[in-house]
Amino acid sequence: MPNIEQTIKRQRQDVKKRENNQGQVTSMRSAKKKFLAAVDTDADNKQELYEGAVKAIDRAASRGLIHENKAARDKSRLSKKLAK
């Protein structure tokens, strides 16, 4: 356990940041899964779900939660599914 006040505060902040980041990554994954489920069932709103998934992926990449190349790869795969 750290003795320095600054280090104690930094640990408290890190816990909050980690929870926030994990929540954003989880919402990104959920958006991707919703889109893939809509493609499988050939739903009417798959274009909207695609746009939401791409937005979530871009948001995660811009905040450094996932690598930019992973974001590009995921978006490419989703667009292929949409085009089918």
UniProtKB/TrEMBL annotation:
GO cellular component: cytosol; small ribosomal subunit
UniProt xrefs under SUPFAM superfamilies: Ribosomal protein S20
InterPro entries given in the database record: Ribosomal_bS20, Ribosomal_bS20_sf
Pfam families per record: Ribosomal_S20p
Family label: Belongs to the bacterial ribosomal protein bS20 family.
TM annotation in the entry: none
Task performed by this protein: Binds directly to 16S ribosomal RNA.
Domain of life, per lineage: Bacteria
Gene Ontology molecular-function annotations: small ribosomal subunit rRNA binding; structural constituent of ribosome
NCBIfam families: S20
Descriptive protein name: Small ribosomal subunit protein bS20
Gene Ontology biological-process annotations: translation
Region listing for Disordered, in residue ranges: 1-30
The organism of origin for this protein: Alkalibacterium gilvum
Biased composition (Basic and acidic residues): 7-20
